[in-house]
Amino acid sequence: MTELLLATDNAGKVREYSLLLKGSPFVLVTPEQKGVRLVISESDATLEENAALKARTYAQASNLLTLADDSGLEVNALAGEPGVLSARYAGEGASDRERVEFLLQKLSAVPWEKRGARFRCVIAIATREGKIEPCHGECEGIIAYEPKGENGFGYDPIFYLPELGKTMAELPLEQKNKISHRGKAAQKARQILDRLSGGQN
């Protein structure tokens, strides 16, 4: 089977995509497995631009069909922040816990009814020739007052889903993948991968 490079070193993302893309016509491989070491500055203004940059750069370096994503948390009370800066919101090198604590501090005076937010994910699939296929996914929720749950990563412990009465981090991975922003984008990506498989094998 032909390989598909997943352009991330994030263990949480690798775990999720291994399930999300299970059964696709490609074997999922990571940059570490292929000996590809790149440092890409995600300095573009949008999730779409960052995802495309990562996908195209890794595709050129590896000569493999490549899937990259960029995702962000948009909080209404913060005018859409942290958005594209989600991973760096509390400073470069901050841990997931530090990012969560930083965000909760900024929202300390915001009441429940104004804590609406959404996760957004953009997946970019890059061919070896540099063509980009984008996919989008969103998930609406509320920023909880405190973290709950041991699953997931990033802001999952404070992203509360009213219809389920739980945070994203309290969900089993299989359930999360059905409703999450990344899961919704990956469903669209699978359709593209199925279509591309004819020209990659």
How does this structure look, described?
The protein has 201 residues and is α+β, with helices and mostly antiparallel strands. It has one domain (2-200): Alpha-Beta Complex (Maf protein), CATH 3.90.950.10. It is built from 6 helices and 8 strands. It has helices at residues 11-20, 31-34, 47-62, 96-106, 173-179, 181-200, and strands at residues 2-6, 26-29, 65-75, 82-83, 116-126, 132-143, 159-161, 166-167. Strands 1, 2, 3, 4, 5, 6, 7 and 8 form an 8-stranded mixed beta sheet that branches. The chain is globular and about 50 Å long. The termini are close together.
Topology, pairings included?
Blueprint: E1 2-6, H1 11-20, E2 26-29, H2 31-34, H3 47-62, E3 65-75, E4 82-83, H4 96-106, E5 116-126, E6 132-143, E7 159-161, E8 166-167, H5 173-179, H6 181-200
Helix pairs in contact: 5-6
